[in-house]
Amino acid sequence: MEKKTTTEDFYWYAASTRSRHEKVAASMLESLGVRHFLPLITQARRWSDRERVVASPLFTCYVFINIANEPESRLRVLKVPGGIGLVGNQNGPAAIPEGEIESLRAVLSQGIGCVPCPYLQKGDRVRIVRGALTGIEGMFLRSGRDSKLVLSIEMIQRSVAINIDACDVEPVSQSPYGPSAKSGFSVAHVA
Fold first, then answer.
1. What residue numbers bound the domain in which 71 lies?
2. Which ranges of 6-165 would DSSP assign to H, the alpha helix?
3. Are residues 23 and 68 in the same domain?
4. Overall pTM surpassing 0.90 (yes/no)
5. Among 67, 82, 92, 187, which residue's Cβ finds the most Cβ atoms within 10 Å?
6. Using an 8 Å Cβ cutoff, are 82 and 65 in contact?
7. Which residue, of 109, 137, 162, is where some domain finishes?
8. Phi, then psi, of 76 in degrees rounded to 5
9. pLDDT for 44-68, tens place per residue?
């Protein structure tokens, strides 16, 4: 007797796409009846002769799909034009917790301004790239009253900052020589 797939058997996955093929892949998934989520943000784009507001993918080269964890479902998605593959590890595609997708949907549905930013985790070494403290390096922390909220999609190592100030930092590789010579001290709280 064949097992019937229920909605509880469906999981969210990140599907990587070719550059600038996110909307094409989403359109093809729609036509196949595959539940998907392509987070879009509106941005003003300027060309030499005009300026327009366009909807751009929040995470370039990714579309989120909700499919059963079955070879047939995965194969159906892998055949979509513009798609490359499912994000995972040596054991196969790795599911994204539904809470991460729902958090992202909630932020976008409320119209809260958000921008992509580097994927940061507590304890990462970062460098301030804008403002009066440009060039100072320190440790990224998410605690206390002054913290910035960062939503992360861990599977694709991407984050979205709710407050643009959080994007004033970039990750730096750990130097064997400690904090940068320019700063003379470590920033205890950057976010």
1. 7-109
2. 22-32, 71-78, 98-109
3. yes
4. no
5. 67
6. no
7. 109
8. -60, -40
9. 888 889 899 899 999 999 999 999 9
